[in-house]
Fold each of these.
Amino acid sequence: MIRIDSVTKRYPDGTVAVDNLSLEIPDRSITVFVGPSGCGKTTTLRMINRMIEPTEGRILLDGKDLAQQPVNTLRRSMGYVIQNAGLFQHRTIVDNIATVPRLLGWSKDKARARARELMDRVGLDGALAKRYPYQLSGGQQQRVGVARALAADPPVLLMDEPFSAVDPVVRKGLQDELLRIQEELGKTIVFVTHDIDEAVKIGTNVAVMRTGGHLAQFAPPAELLSNPADDFVEDFLGADRGIRRLSFFSTADLGLLTTPIVAVDSTAEQISERSAGDVPYLLVTDVEGKPLGWSEPARLTAGAVDPERLLPYGRPFEHGKESLRAALDGAVLSPTGWAVAVSADGRVTGVVSQQTIGEAIRAAHAEGDPDGRTDGRTDAKVAG
Ligand SMILES: Nc1ncnc2c1ncn2[C@@H]1O[C@H](COP(=O)(O)OP(=O)(O)OP(=O)(O)O)[C@@H](O)[C@H]1O
Ligand SMILES: [Mg+2]
């Protein structure tokens, strides 16, 4: 655990970058520092590996004051990733990643073997190993940066706006990858961003900072969204925090209907059986059980179903895995107001109306704070 204990950083010109900051960074989790430009995020991160020394207060790693530890040993136990990756332009990808193991005295072969293993781990094609950084896309370079930071297997990873320079799609991929790596390797990650969505998505805990180096709130994302400490945090979270909070509620208990579903090759009898009880719409699936679209029962003719003429089914959600936010999104996207639940392989497991989703949301709120950690984590990754 890293404990930041009443830390203040005052630069020589008098600027107070961090003001009396205290918080605990638990092991094997992702702690995110988020806040507007100049609020002291980078300064805080750099005090953790002693690139910057605090003016007052102390930082403890596993109970030991950082100030008492040799800087070199300390840095080796902390991988560091920055925006634009900061790669060595004259070194190949594999040698960039092998940098720290080589410094630690590993043989070239062993270091390169380790580098190739890490390329695989961060989702880089081995064929890129001999290229130079300028021959890679921004997103690929960022992955190299992560692999390089992981090379000596440090327990701690410090990341300063690592994904800020790439487009939103690549960025989402990098975030998902980071979550997967963290789950696999159990690193203690300290992550700086100014993007609150990124913070909510990847953070186990989020520290919201405000200008002047003040800590405005330190909490798990679900709690930030449900209980912002003050107007600043609420403002920073943005207008749709209620909707975003739904990402932390599971769909596992959502009551699905399995009756109003017919396969495209259903007989007239099956269609009429399935539309019993005033069902407004039937979901038509292909022969494998994957969704095709909705239809009013009266408009379905057995043996002559035209998938082109069905109403769109929106975006299906993975039942039990994705959140109420995904379910609601699915319902809102379909003109019928019904969402389609699928299993991991895309086959329909049931359908659910906007109204039922609304009831589930009310029930979830009534139960108090959502279980942000387990469900939220899995979900944020899947639902975005
Ligand atoms: N070497 C320095 N000397 C004087 N002031 C500094 C120095 N480095 C940073 N600052 C100031 O300290 C404050 C915090 O800077 P810091 O880089 O930690 O902010 P940040 O939250 O990382 O911002 P950004 O999101 O823009 O990266 C800012 O007001 C900055 O101008
Ligand atoms: Mg910064």
Note: Confidence is low (pLDDT under 50) at residues 371-384.
Amino acid sequence: MSKCVHCDANNKGWFYCRSCGEKASVSKFSTNMWMRTERGKRSDIEFRTQTIDESVDEMNKERNTRYA
Ligand SMILES: [Zn+2]
């Protein structure tokens, strides 16, 4: 079981810590997997029109809004 890199809380596979709200893992693999699962459900066309950095920023914004 991995732990949050920010607050050291147990992390049950969440990409974002349920305790502190920060990204629980800094691994690139986690980000890519999240993009394949969550982002992949949406429009591929929308994704392709953005750079990777822009897409990550947008995802972070969506996450922050959702859990605000
Ligand atoms: Zn945390």
Note: Helices lie at 28-37, 44-48, 52-67.
